[in-house]
Amino acid sequence: MKNEKQPPAGDAIGRLVQEFNKLPGIGPKSAQRITFYLLRTSEEEAQKLADAIVSLKQKITLCSRCFNVTEQNPCPICSNPRRDSHQICIVEQPQDVVVIEHTGIYKGLYHVLHGAISPTEGISADDIRIRELTERLKNSQVSEVIMATNANLEGEQTAMYLGRIIAPLGIKVTRLARGLPYGSELEYADDVTLTRAFEGRSEV
Ligand SMILES: [Zn+2]
Q1: Do residues 189 and 162 make contact, with C-beta atoms less than 8 angstroms apart?
Q2: Which listed residue, of 35, 53, 106, 125, carries a Cα 20 to 30 Å from 135's Cα?
Q3: Can you give the pTM of this predicted structure?
Q4: Residue 1 scores a pLDDT above 50
């Protein structure tokens, strides 16, 4: 029997429902709710949303030094002379920079890998920004690299791999303390837990 609750995929409503349904955390019901909400709003409001989405893709680029998302290159963190260029904090995703910055505890620079090594998903060291990191560390004034990859299997594997290739460069490698529950993603850590994890970081 045909499900008559779903609008035909070809029309404007169906198309938008399908697009929203692709977003993280939005199921088919929410996708329909948002679509019908937009149908009731003014054309001006709808245009604002559409413009915001398009300018996100047009204006945001990756910083050529740390690979964080940014509207200016180098990004505001890399180009801030008050940041400590002796420390680099390694994170998996740009969202992780946002949560760490929110704590205010860290004053160094970042390097965003855009993923983690995962043999099960076929992601190797060459697929994330590791080569760029080693290039960056060579002839740099960096004295400490802080591993802030996620506290799960992929994050641990990535931290271990990086530790092995960075240690020979004579740079201290530290890992965030275990305050973060195993299996958790940094993105969801609260400020207090994250601050403690930074303070209690230890050499690997
Ligand atoms: Zn940067």
Answers
A1: no
A2: 106
A3: 0.79
A4: no
